[in-house]
Write a structure and sequence with these properties.
This protein is 22% helix and 32% strand. The chain is an alpha+beta fold. Strands 1-2-4-3-5-8-6-7 form an eight-stranded mixed β-sheet. The chain is globular.
Length: 579
């Protein structure tokens, strides 16, 4: 369904609000006459809700193929990042992945910047890409992620002249406490933070019994989002349910102006809201919130369409200007993937096209090739509109596995495309179980542990054999550690750390974690357990360490006990299985 274009009067009022938001001067002024508003560019494009739904279908399929979830740190999340990243790279975005080592489930944020407009004047649009463990997360938050992806692709296709720099972000680990966005904001310098003139968040923007909610509704930052929905007579309301519960909070805490759309989660639609918006009163906006039924059938196409078009309107009002497009080009690789055995080679065609302005010289390069693989181009530079042959040569000792090679064309701007290379052959991944003395039956080597931790004491039973690692259990202030350094090979398809944990406690609280066990790889925390997790018998705990392939890391368990009432953390049968 096409959106309605806001009236000229509405656009004039919005111009004053947007100017106040994105400049250092926030003084109010009466709206200028039409002839005095040159910043009002052509109407924003209509965003195809069919295309947005196609992205949702892909995310749903990814979840189905990976245990029904796209939780941060899972294979489903990694595949979601790869899907979005490939689309953005093909469209010409500058794309980076940021590893969130402080996340509950360490994994990557995805940042994409349209390389036009002043770099110190950034408007940022974000959505979390992860789901909860219980389901595929199509409304929460495939809807926000797909809405931003399609808007990013349309912006690239239209390639208008830009007055501001537009940056898109897809966050990890939001469901565990806004960790991905918080990690990103904390990584920014003061100058980088000040360059972000507004952050817009989109979390659950297609709820099936949805409402129309805006974060910080009356702020100048919210003006373009509100203006579009006002033009549809939707009478949006403040997003009370979502306050402090999504990634805009991380930016707000850093002093960056924020706003965003939402369509509601588990709260119930009031009778008054049902009267003006339709839907069912006294029912949740999304009855599948954080459940396995949050699939593609759990999204309102109408709400999704209005959200997607509102995002486009905001982008055009905040960052798009008039004038002649700059010289620009695109890069594509065909075929987009290839498989080569060690000692072999393959070729692909790199094509360029002039997308705006005049043709220009484009220099070709490649990054991301694994050890033992070289990439060359003939010719090494072309005039946009021309093509070159890319040759991928694989040595007899090259690292095996699947890798993404980024092919970049550099002229007045840089554009890139992805090529997926699979290297086959013997060797590459030295698989097996990497932990030495995994059941503690052979003394302390190669473990490093506090005195008395590795023990055969009958007071706490081992899971197998006689020995185990028993941390704490003193009933007084005490700290115990257990660690082992491990070299993790590259080129494997799986990296699973597992151990069996029994927690026994004399604490009688049901709400306070007095005694804690922290599990770390290097400086990153994998998990924290406490007296609240006490249970009879052992429970297996497992983690994916694929992010540490090719590194030597230290695995460490630290138990900290307070001044009274013992808690014992007993560990046995530690394995790191790669293959």
């Amino acid at each position: 369904m096409r959106r309605r274009t806001p009236t000229a009067g509405l656009a004039l009022a919005l111009f004053a609000a947007v100017t106040a938001t994105l400049t250092t001067t926030a003084a109010s002024a009466a709206p200028a006459p039409v002839s005095a508003a040159p910043a009002l560019v052509a109407a924003a494009p209509d965003i195809s809700v069919t295309n947005v739904q196609a992205h949702l279908t892909q995310l749903n399929t990814i979840a189905s193929n990976n245990g029904g979830t796209r939780r941060a740190g899972s294979a489903g999340y990694t595949a979601s990042v790869s899907y979005v990243k490939a689309k953005l790279q093909a469209a010409g975005y500058t794309v980076t992945e940021q590893y969130c080592s402080a996340c509950t489930y360490p994994s990557n944020n995805l940042i994409a910047e349209w390389p036009q407009g002043p770099a110190d004047q950034v408007v940022m649009f974000g959505a979390h890409l992860d789901s909860v463990s219980a389901g595929p997360g199509i409304n929460d938050n495939g809807s926000g992620s797909a809405t931003l992806l399609e808007n990013a692709l349309v912006l690239a296709q239209q390639n208008p002249s830009m007055t501001k720099r537009v940056r898109f972000a897809w966050w990890t680990d939001e469901e565990q406490g806004l960790n991905g966005s918080e990690f990103y904001v904390n990584s920014l310098s003061a100058t980088q933070k000040s360059a972000i003139k507004g952050y817009y968040n989109f979390d659950m923007v297609g709820s099936p019994n949805g409402g129309y909610f805006i974060n910080r509704l009356t702020s100048t930052t919210a003006a373009p989002l509100k203006a579009y929905w006002d033009s549809l007579n939707l009478q949006p309301e403040e997003n009370v349910e979502g306050q402090g519960r999504s990634d805009d909070y991380s930016f707000q805490q850093a002093g960056i102006p924020t706003s965003g759309y939402a369509a509601g989660a588990s709260a119930r639609k009031t009778t008054a809201q049902a009267t003006k918006w339709g839907g069912t009163a006294n029912s949740a906006y999304d009855s599948c919130y954080h459940r396995s039924c949050d699939t593609t059938s759990n999204v309102s196409a109408t709400v999704l369409n209005r959200s997607a078009d509102g995002v486009a309107y905001a982008i055009w009002q905040l960052a798009v200007g008039g004038g002649t497009p700059t010289n620009d080009f695109s890069v594509a690789v065909s075929p987009a993937s290839g498989s080569v055995a060690r000692g072999g080679s393959t070729t692909a065609t790199v094509s360029t096209a002039t997308t705006s302005g005049s043709a220009q010289t484009v220099n070709l390069s490649a990054t991301g090739a694994p050890s033992g693989v070289t990439v060359s181009f003939s010719p090494s530079s072309v005039t946009s509109g021309g093509s070159a042959t890319m040759t991928v040569s694989v040595s007899a000792t090259a690292t095996t596995g699947t890798f993404t090679i980024t092919v970049t064309g550099t002229g007045s701007v840089s554009r890139s495309a992805g090529y997926t290379l699979t290297v086959t052959g013997t060797g590459g991944c030295t698989g097996g179980q990497l932990i030495g003395n995994s059941s503690f039956e052979s003394g302390s080597t190669p473990w490093t542990a506090s005195s008395g931790v590795i023990t055969n004491s009958s007071s706490q039973a081992a899971r197998t054999g006689s020995y185990k690692a028993w941390l704490d259990g003193y009933g007084s202030s005490h700290t115990d550690t257990l660690s082992q350094s491990v070299s993790i090979p590259a080129g494997c398809s799986s990296y699973t750390l597992s151990f069996w944990l029994h927690i026994d406690t004399a604490e009688n609280t049901t709400g306070t974690a007095y005694d804690k066990l922290t599990v770390q790889v290097g400086s990153a925390t994998l998990a924290t357990y406490s007296n609240l997790n006490a249970a009879s018998g052992y429970a297996q705990r497992s983690f994916n360490l694929a992010a540490y392939a090719g590194q030597t890391v230290t695995l460490k368990w630290t138990g900290v006990e307070d001044a009274s009432l013992q808690t014992s953390f007993v560990i046995d049968d530690v394995t790191l299985q790669v293959g």
